[in-house]
Request: fold
Amino acid sequence: MQKPLTFAVPKGRILDEALPVMARAGIVPEAAFHDKKNRALSFASEDGAMRIIRVRAFDVATFVAHGAAQMGIVGSDVVEEFNYPELYAPVDLDIGHCRLSVAEPADWAGTGSAQGHVSHLRVATKYPNLTRRHFESRGIQAECVKLNGAMELAPGLGLAGRIVDLVSTGQTLKDNGLVETDRIIAISARLVVNRAALKTDERVGALVDAFRAIAAAGKAA
Amino acid sequence: MTDTAPDLLPEGLEDQLPREAAAAARITRAVMDALDSHGYDRVNPPLIEFEKSMAGRMAGVQPRRMFRFVDPASLRTLALRSDITVQVGRIAATSMAAAARPLRLCYAGQVATIKGDGLDPTRERTQLGAELIGSDSVAAVAELVSLAVDALTAAGGRGISVDFTLPDLVDTLAAGPLALDPGQVDAVRRELDAKDAGGLLQAGGEAYLPLLYAAGPFDQAIERLAAIDAGGALARRIEGLRAVAARVNGKARLTLDPTERHGFEYQSWFGFTLYAEGVRGALGRGGTYRILGSGGEAATGFSLYTDPLVEAGLDQAAPRDTLFLPPGHDRDVAARLRAIGWRTIAAIDAADDAAALGCTHVLDQGEPRKL
Reply:
């Protein structure tokens, strides 16, 4: 009897959209997964063949890259931010769409610094690597202040002039007096798999094929 | 300044204590015996060399990842070896340039890098390997892949799986049948590395998408690769892959991933990675390459990094009997017992405790008596 595969899913944003896709691939978590009072972090699938763990989005990538989970679902923002060589993102699930953008206070728009006439910037973000890479490609040294949430507060309180954060409707930015000035990348959720697991475990390859077929069917529809 | 952790080892370095060291020695011996039995002669290059000769022998070697320092004698930069393969390349191109080809050499030793690799902080590894210099033909590749599987099996690897790849595939296709702008090649390669289908489309590599699907169990994957073979540019490679696969079929599980490039800095048409059941990550890799220098020379080889097997190998070690020799024992009897295979521990002091020192037997009136 083989050990059950471990599938990591992120808390929050993507999860609600991901569950139906997983169900079509035959991965249905047990009822306790949906019980808000249940504090367990690891759940069996309905058929008992898999273990499903619910962790923070960034930790999905870490679990899978280390091989502690064989596969998972996470946004391409996280995949790009870590850029782990052990992590494959073979299927674009076409859910959880948003974008990673640069934003700055609305009353700055049109001033010299907004047009990029600077060589150094301070940016508050959850994505220091992507941010640094983005500004480096424009010849700007970005000093990143790593925050774990509420980036929108940073410019108003003088922590950093700009922020780099996920944007879907833009409402949060607007409510906090910020405007989107530059789009870094478009984001959607990806199926991620551990490189060694894909090559040594046939079940992983079969599931990748299943998800790929679902994604293709979704696109055709 | 007070040193709060005086004897802490630097990150990524560790001691092998007796149990681990014994397992590591057993693994090294098993691998080297397997290589020796196939006619590979062992060479021992030095730990430190001129940076230039380490970096210049093969394309894609990164001196940035080596520990480097200035040689007080020559005032040139020295580097600690990070890959013994390049040193064997130097030996083949210099001291053994006149030796008959194909030249079969093998090696075992420690290598170090200045930084860990991605998620793995390890900075020192045991590298064991074999190189066949003078050929990168299908026959050479078949011999080396099959030898690598044998060596890994001898070292205790179980459920071995071999992943084939074509390291120069993207370059070959980009230059001809699936033409890309030079500016696009890097981005396409990066997305192929991450197997990111969405990213690949964004990078303009739509024509390369089928390559992502041509990965998986060898028999299926090779059919898919043959089906998308652009204008027959890959026909020879596909035929080669099939021949190599036929040679190792049955000894290991085979997979194909034509665009895999991780760890293949200098390989040319063929590369492979070795995995074993119960061991996280790759245990070794190999392939065909060119030794740079006057004229250049084709070669095929592989390296095994067996440290992860040590952990897995611990439980394989049968507990050994050890004989305690009390003070004033008969030395001739002890020597005779050692000659027939006993492992002995002699008392230094009358207070020595046989059981605490790990002995299973004690010498009593000329005979081992179980404790």
Q: What stands out?
A: Chain A has a mean pLDDT of 88.
